């Protein structure tokens, strides 16, 4: 089943939750919808589920508008952050609830058994939700949503209420189940790492708009806007000016230094913003681009060492290998990175007065 | 800890000891243990009828309260409309409005010569009053519904508002239609709220005295009315009535204790809170002027009409009557009744001067509040801090006074403190003690949430910053609970002001209060004066209501 939000606008009173949003999820695909809270991702999901009607635009399943179809007939499965397991029903009854209304060939008992097996909860049929751990509740919620064989699965921050370790385990699990069932899935999360980890494609949203849709790699390595740069991963942003373009690379000046970037756009003389990811910077090694700086801060993260290095053109974050000979605060170092690691962030085509309002990724 | 002894001592001396003494009386014959009186009551046709009627009218009244309360709970939860906040606040009125004023309002509006009957007779040219509501079971049930439907509104609305809409949405996407969602999800999840409200209403109606006495008009006897009439009729050389009354009190107490226990259990069950609760979206009740008169709104308007008749009608009737006078020359507006109730002249109907009743009410109310508030504060602070086990014990200690009717308490005080050296009955002290005991559990239950809300860490922060314990109390804790204390005091005063049952049993000439005076006037079919007095009480209740509304956020949380 293909899902498409087509030019959808949705307002709540004076606030615009979605502004002319078009978003298509392909059949069998797992798409992550990621963005800061309040950006409209949950609204998008509720439009698909049928709990909200768009003020403009259309919601299409396999090319057919479903605006006239009530939620109970849309055939979607939905999992909330809070799970919303019916507290007065045991696990079996929760999972079997949707089967009351679905016409399935297998008996409800058989189907519940199948589902509990799928989410690895066999034997807990008679537990009440209050007797389950958070992780188990999450699995029951998933089983319940999948039981009536929905064509579309909607996950609304499904792992946000769990602790970090469990979150990582369950997202693998969710991806496995999604692959097994080949069900079209929209996965809403504010956690960009989670989005990159689970999704076939990622849609990045900010204040009611889609900023970029692409594979996790595309979104990470070739972010379409400054917002995406700031929201996805850690990155160093530098203001630069194009000095010369030659074929596949460009000569840029940043303050006092000059570096080369892979060419995506830009004309000579134009001011641009460039992105250099922390992991593509090497310390004290020969490279195409070299900057000089002083180490001002260190963060030990177990598998990596994060360094904050003050250069003439601003503070850059560098991800170094923790096993390398350990630098110290105050050390003067050389930062080296390849031309291919310098990415010129595209400017928006149209001038947008509210651009400043959407710079901060932590906007609530 | 020595401070704790005060409220405990108070409860033991003025509640537990008299009650045990009374129960002993019901369980002994000629000084030896005997079930004779209990047995007599349980086998006697008349007493059986009284007990069954008590339960029956309580059941009907509870159902009527649910029928009348549920629609408003639904509307408050799902819709926006003008004055919504005011209407929601008004649901605390039953706690501060004297029951006897409701009885009076019903008599004035629904009586044989009441405004409603007169209106209908005039409308259709009838010669007989067509609506026999006063002095009937219908009247009792309706008056109880006036009083208790708001409790249903409060509890159900609270439960409904706390129900995360995502439960219902989950059911929807699983294929359930709106009807199934309501049946399978909404109803079971708000049921604890409904049950806890219904249990409380049932207890209130089971123990109800002024309304049954005045609206029932002597034709209907409940356990409370029966005890009252037996104790008051002093033509009983063998004290047989006392013995039977005590046995009846024993049975009534057993029943209400059982019900109170169930209530507290049910109430505890629904305090579960969802962590990431998403507030329920409300939509405007009317989308435009046209929408107001749409046929689909017919049911709504019918409900509004019935509500106005039952809730607003009696109050308006009292106010109208207080300014109205029938003379040989016809009827006319007057302020006579107001000047009358403030006269210091003896009134035979009352056995007192009306002014005395007004002064007594205020005096008893203030004294009882001054006793119950500090004692209640100590008790509440212990409950608020007690660990689970201790808390249970104190909750239980408090449960008995909450479940004991004022009539039974007054009866017990009457039988215990009526001989030297503890000759208290017949003095103002007896009335004040009765009032203090009656309002004590309410004060405690009102203050516990206020104190619970006080974060201990705040005090600990103050201490670690160098404040002494006393200073932290004075500068941190007291200012934080001050408004709660004021609201608690107002609540206590209003409860004492409206108390009629115990006062009626303990009152002697010179000890009448306003509710007792209203009752005495009403039972003599003398109108005007009781209306003026009721208006005074309603005005004080309204002030109390405003205080609670302003400062009482948490005070009524547990009711």
Strand-residue proportion of chain B: under 5%
Oligomer: heterodimer
Strand order of the largest sheet of chain A: 6-7-8-3-9-10
Low-confidence parts of chain A: 349-364
Query: Mean pLDDT of chain B, nearest integer?
Result: 86
Number of strands of chain B: 6
- The helix-and-strand class of chain B reads mainly alpha
Shape of chain A, please? elongated
Could you report the average pLDDT of chain A, rounded to the nearest whole number?
87
Which chains share the greatest interface?
A-B, 29 and 21 residues
Main sheet summary of chain B: 2 strands, antiparallel
| Cα-to-Cα separation, first versus last residue of chain B | 28 Å
Unreliable residue stretches of chain B? none
Given the structure, what is the number of helices of chain A? 8
Strand content of chain A: 35-45%
Helicity level of chain A:
10-25%
Radius of gyration of chain B: 25 Å
Can you describe this structure?
The complex is a heterodimer of chains A (364) and B (559). By secondary structure, chain A is of the alpha+beta class. Chain A has eight helices and 20 strands. Chain A has helices spanning 41-49, 91-96, 108-118, 134-146, 164-181, 192-198, 216-221, 226-231, and strands at 3-12, 15-25, 30-34, 56-61, 64-65, 76-79, 152-156, 184-189, 201-206, 209-214, 236-246, 249-254, 257-262, 271-276, 282-283, 289-300, 304-311, 314-321, 332-337, 342-345. Chain B is built from 25 helices and six strands. In chain B, α20 packs across α22. Chain B is globular, with a radius of gyration of 25 Å. Chains A and B meet through β6 of A and α9 and α10 of B.
Provide the fold topology:
The complex is a heterodimer of chains A (364) and B (559).
Chain A: E1 3-12, E2 15-25, E3 30-34, H1 41-49, E4 56-61, E5 64-65, E6 76-79, H2 91-96, H3 108-118, H4 134-146, E7 152-156, H5 164-181, E8 184-189, H6 192-198, E9 201-206, E10 209-214, H7 216-221, H8 226-231, E11 236-246, E12 249-254, E13 257-262, E14 271-276, E15 282-283, E16 289-300, E17 304-311, E18 314-321, E19 332-337, E20 342-345
Parallel strand pairs in A: 3-8, 3-9, 6-7, 7-8
Antiparallel strand pairs in A: 1-2, 1-4, 4-5, 9-10, 11-12, 11-14, 12-13, 14-20, 15-19, 16-17, 16-19, 17-18
Helix pairs in contact in A: 3-4
Chain B: H1 2-26, E1 28-29, E2 32-33, H2 36-43, H3 45-78, E3 79-80, H4 84-90, H5 93-96, H6 99-110, H7 115-124, H8 137-161, H9 165-173, H10 178-207, H11 210-216, H12 223-232, H13 240-269, E4 283-284, H14 289-292, H15 298-322, E5 324-327, E6 330-333, H16 336-341, H17 354-385, H18 388-403, H19 406-416, H20 428-452, H21 456-464, H22 469-498, H23 501-506, H24 514-523, H25 529-551
Parallel strand pairs in B: 3-4
Antiparallel strand pairs in B: 1-2, 5-6
């Amino acid at each position: 089943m293909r899902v498409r939000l087509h030019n959808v606008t949705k307002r709540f009173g004076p606030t615009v939750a979605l502004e002319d949003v078009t978003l298509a999820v392909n059949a069998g695909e797992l798409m992550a919808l990621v963005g800061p809270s309040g950006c409209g991702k949950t609204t998008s999901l509720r439009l698909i589920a049928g709990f909200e009607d768009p003020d403009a635009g259309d919601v299409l399943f396999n090319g057919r508008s479903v605006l006239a179809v009530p939620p109970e007939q849309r055939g979607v499965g939905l999992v909330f952050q809070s799970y919303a397991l019916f507290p007065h029903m045991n696990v079996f009854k929760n999972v079997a609830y949707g089967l009351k209304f679905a016409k399935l060939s297998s008996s409800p008992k058989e189907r519940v058994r199948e589902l509990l097996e799928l989410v690895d909860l066999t034997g807990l049929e008679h537990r009440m939700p209050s007797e389950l751990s958070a992780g188990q509740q999450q699995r029951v919620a998933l089983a319940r949503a999948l039981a009536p064989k929905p064509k579309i699965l909607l996950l609304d921050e499904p792992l946000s209420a769990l602790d970090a370790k469990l979150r990582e385990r369950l997202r693998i699990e969710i991806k496995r189940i999604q692959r097994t069932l080949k069900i079209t899935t929209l996965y809403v999360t504010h956690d960009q790492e989670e989005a990159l980890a689970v999704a076939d494609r990622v849609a990045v949203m900010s204040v009611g708009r889609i900023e970029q849709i692409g594979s996790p790699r595309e979104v990470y390595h070739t972010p379409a806007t400054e917002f995406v740069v700031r929201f996805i991963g850690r990155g160093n942003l530098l203001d630069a000016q194009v000095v010369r373009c030659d074929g596949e690379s460009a000569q840029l000046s940043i303050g006092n230094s000059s570096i080369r970037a892979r060419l995506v756009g830009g004309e000579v003389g134009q001011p641009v913003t460039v992105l250099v990811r922390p992991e593509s910077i090497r310390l004290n090694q020969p490279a195409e681009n070299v900057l000089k700086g002083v180490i001002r801060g260190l963060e030990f993260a177990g598998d990596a060492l994060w360094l904050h290095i003050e250069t003439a053109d601003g503070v850059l974050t560098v991800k170094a290998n923790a096993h390398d000979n350990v630098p110290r605060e105050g050390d003067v170092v050389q930062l080296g990175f390849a031309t291919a690691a310098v990415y010129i962030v595209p400017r928006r085509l149209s001038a947008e007065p509210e651009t400043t309002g959407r710079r901060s990724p932590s906007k609530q | 800890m020595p401070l704790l002894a005060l409220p405990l001592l108070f409860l033991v001396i003025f509640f537990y000891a008299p009650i045990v003494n009374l129960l002993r009386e019901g369980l002994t014959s000629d000084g030896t243990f005997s079930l004779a009186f209990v047995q007599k009551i349980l086998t006697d046709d008349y007493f059986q009828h009284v007990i069954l009627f008590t339960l029956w009218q309580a059941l009907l009244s509870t159902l009527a309260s649910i029928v009348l309360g549920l629609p408003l709970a639904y509307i408050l939860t799902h819709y926006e409309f003008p004055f919504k906040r005011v209407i929601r606040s008004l649901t605390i009125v039953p706690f501060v409005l004297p029951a006897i004023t409701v009885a009076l309002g019903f008599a004035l509006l629904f009586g044989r010569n009441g405004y409603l009957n007169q209106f209908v007779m005039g409308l259709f040219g009838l010669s007989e009053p067509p609506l026999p509501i006063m002095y009937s079971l219908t009247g009792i049930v309706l008056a109880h519904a006036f009083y208790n439907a708001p409790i249903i509104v409060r509890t159900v609305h609270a439960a409904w508002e706390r129900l995360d809409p995502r439960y219902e949405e989950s059911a929807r996407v699983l294929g359930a239609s709106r009807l199934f969602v309501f049946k399978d999800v909404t109803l079971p999840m708000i049921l604890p709220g409904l049950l806890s409200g219904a249990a409380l209403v049932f207890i209130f109606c089971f123990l109800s005295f002024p309304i049954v006495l005045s609206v029932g008009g002597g034709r209907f006897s409940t356990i409370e009315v029966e005890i009252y009439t037996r104790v008051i009729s002093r033509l009983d050389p063998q004290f047989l009535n006392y013995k039977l009354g005590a046995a009846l009190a024993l049975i009534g107490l057993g029943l209400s204790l059982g019900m109170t226990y169930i209530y507290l259990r049910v109430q505890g069950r629904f305090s579960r809170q969802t962590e990431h609760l998403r507030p329920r979206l409300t939509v405007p009740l009317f989308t435009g002027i046209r929408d107001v008169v749409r046929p689909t709104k017919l049911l709504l308007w019918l409900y509004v009409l019935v509500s106005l008749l039952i809730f607003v009608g009696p109050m308006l009737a009292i106010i109208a009557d207080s300014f109205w006078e029938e003379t040989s020359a016809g009827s006319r507006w007057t302020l006579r009744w107001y000047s009358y109730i403030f006269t210091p002249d003896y009134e035979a109907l009352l056995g007192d001067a009306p002014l005395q009743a007004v002064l007594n009410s205020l005096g008893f109310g203030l004294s009882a509040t001054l006793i119950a508030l500090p004692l209640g504060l100590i008790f509440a602070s212990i409950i608020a801090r007690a660990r689970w086990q201790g808390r249970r014990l104190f909750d239980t200690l408090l449960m008995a006074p909450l479940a004991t009717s004022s009539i039974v308490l007054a009866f017990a005080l009457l039988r215990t403190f009526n001989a030297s050296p503890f000759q208290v009955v017949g003095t103002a002290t007896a009335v004040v003690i009765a009032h203090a005991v009656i309002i004590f559990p309410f004060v405690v239950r009102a203050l516990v949430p206020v104190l619970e809300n006080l974060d201990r860490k705040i005090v600990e922060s103050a201490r670690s910053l160098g404040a002494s314990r006393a200073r932290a109390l004075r500068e941190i804790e007291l200012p934080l609970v001050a408004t709660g204390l004021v609201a608690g005091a107002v609540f206590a005063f209003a409860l004492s002001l409206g108390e009629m049952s115990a006062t009626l049993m303990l009152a002697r000439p010179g000890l009448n209060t306003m509710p007792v005076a209203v009752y005495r006037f009403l039972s003599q079919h003398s109108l005007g004066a009781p209306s003026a007095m009721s208006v005074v009480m309603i005005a004080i209740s309204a002030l109390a209501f405003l205080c609670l509304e302003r400062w009482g956020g948490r005070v009524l949380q547990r009711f």
